[in-house]
Write a structure and sequence with these properties.
Rossmann fold, 9-stranded mixed β-sheet, 30% helix, 5-stranded parallel β-sheet, alpha/beta, GMP Synthetase, Chain A, domain 3
Length: 519
């Protein structure tokens, strides 16, 4: 997605970091327009007048090899302020004559503490006596580049923050974009407003008109079929497209048999009655369950579900004239974990049904107006579009639905068991005023059964896993610490009310190393 109408911007050069998009998010949060660009594409730029700053991301590459990713040399001479992060710092050091070495001694992963050496505009209101930052690197700068000075060090990395104040070039070895770095946003704030001297001109609400116009210009007089699940993402997409082309939008809600209890019926009524959308329900539960029979591998599940979605929508599209587009609520985190959206070397984590799970050949063109946005940004758009709070603030729900929350074989019986357990869990969170404190919560079935005792009788039933995480963006997350009485209560309620479950466990793993979903 390119924002062509913006005049001033900050370019973020993506060298393949898993968290590059978080840099863009931090910049946007501060009211500044930003674009992510690949090292290859930045070489194609002919004009730099509207570029007010450059941020060089981290990445898996190393500048210690003969060939390494970089940017055109002239960009270092244009007087454009530059901030290098992790690999970006090492690249700056390499270009200006410093030394970088891979070292077991100097590598740092996780939390580190900074030691202040000099004052800097970049670290104003950031550096304090014991400043916590988050590191993830093996290479380290061991010799300061010419005309640079050190601003801060860590125990194992002496050149953690460096600067050339005259050239307005700065580098940090840690990742200020992640929430693990304390007050990391201040680094971006200082870079943007004290060094780049850029003005705040961007906000999410202003993007609504642009998105509607882009949809209108793309679709023109053609008709669009929208995959509407009832979650916030697809709902916002449906309302955006409805405002853009109105009568030419047909929303299809596909019942895969893998949705939460009562969710389809409730959301269908909202869209039909409140928003007067053209919505059609398609019951394909038998089809999906048959295709998923005896499929246990998570990637195969995702691929099957993704392919079936497209086939269903293509079949439905044939019932109408001039259907050319399939609209989806794809977000950036979906893309970053399925493939590199910017063409960088970002590693693939898993396929999302509406990204990596799509077939190579499709008869419909994809329309994904939200593919460059984070969940919290989509919620802001939802508010501006008048989306009801019960949908706008609903926890994220995966496209493959309960299919990736039933580990192992998927059967109608296991789906029913999980629906009941999940229904109890989510309702209890709402009753206890915990739902809004949590980014995402769900119940899952594990692929093993265990022995239990109920009414003096032996049982051999399923293990129900509960997961609840806190997060700002879905890229990193931590488990939610429930009070003990809640854990006790929810365990009893699920076991006493859901036949087929005799054991409840709670997942206390963060992301990373785990993902939010189990599959």
């Amino acid at each position: 997605m390119q924002f062509q109408n913006e005049k001033e911007k900050v370019l973020i050069v993506d060298f393949g970091s898993q968290v590059t998009k978080l840099i863009a998010r931090r910049v946007r949060e501060l009211g500044v327009f930003s674009e992510i660009i690949t090292p290859k594409n930045i070489r194609k730029l002919k004009k730099y007048n509207n570029i007010k700053g450059l941020i060089l991301s981290g990445g898996p590459s190393t500048v210690t090899k003969k060939k390494f990713q970089s940017i055109p040399d002239e960009l270092f001479k244009k007087g454009i302020p530059i901030l290098g992060i992790c690999y970006g710092l090492q690249l700056i050091a390499k270009v200006f004559g410093g030394s970088i070495k891979p070292s077991k001694k100097n590598r740092e992963f996780g939390r580190a503490f900074l030691i202040k050496k000099n004052t800097s505009l970049l670290t104003k209101n950031f550096l304090k006596t014991k400043q916590t930052v988050w590191m993830s690197h093996e290479d380290a700068v061991v010799k300061l580049p010419k005309n640079f000075r050190v601003v801060a060090s860590s125990k194992d990395s002496k050149l953690t923050i460096i600067e050339n104040e005259n050239k307005k070039i700065y580098g940090v070895q840690f990742h200020p974009e992640v929430t693990h770095t304390e007050n990391g946003k201040q680094i971006f704030k200082n870079f943007l407003f004290l060094i780049c001297k850029i003005k705040k001109k961007w906000n999410i609400n202003s993007q609504k008109t642009r998105l509607i116009n882009e949809i209108r210009n793309t679709v023109k007089t053609e008709k669009v079929i929208c995959a509407l699940s009832g979650g916030v993402d697809s709902s916002v997409v449906a309302l955006l497209i409805n405002k853009a082309i109105k009568r030419n939008l047909i929303c299809i809600m596909v019942d895969t048999g893998l949705m939460r209890k009562n969710e389809f019926k409730d959301t269908y009524k909202i869209f039909k009655k409140r928003y007067n959308l053209n919505v059609k329900l398609v019951d394909c539960s038998k089809l999906f369950l048959n295709k998923l029979k005896n499929i246990t591998h998570p990637e195969k599940k995702r691929k099957i579900i993704g392919n079936l979605f497209i086939k269903v929508f293509e079949k439905e599209a044939k019932k109408y004239n001039n259907i050319k587009f399939l609209a989806q609520g794809t977000l950036y985190p979906d893309i970053i974990e399925s493939r590199s959206s910017s063409g960088s070397k970002t590693s693939k984590i898993k396929s999302h049904h509406n990204v990596g799970g799509l077939p190579n050949k499709m008869n419909l063109k994809l329309l994904e107006p939200l593919k460059e946005f984070f969940k919290d940004e989509v919620r802001i758009l939802g508010n501006s579009l008048g989306l009801v709070k019960s949908i706008n603030y609903k926890h994220p729900f995966p496209g493959p639905g309960l299919g990736i929350r039933i580990i192992g074989n998927i059967t109608k019986e296991r789906v029913k068991i999980l629906q009941e357990a999940d229904f109890i869990f989510i309702n209890e969170l709402i009753k206890k005023n915990l739902y809004k404190k949590i980014w995402q919560a769900y119940a899952a079935l594990l692929p093993i059964k265990t022995v239990g005792v109920m009414g003096d009788s032996r049982t051999y039933e399923n293990i129900c896993l509960l997961r609840a995480v806190t997060s700002e963006d879905g890229m990193t997350a931590d488990y939610f610490s429930f009070p003990k009485n809640f854990i006790d209560s929810i365990s009893n309620k699920i076991i006493n009310n859901v036949k087929g479950i005799n054991r409840v466990v709670y997942d206390i793993t963060s992301k990373p190393p785990s993902t939010v979903e189990l599959e």
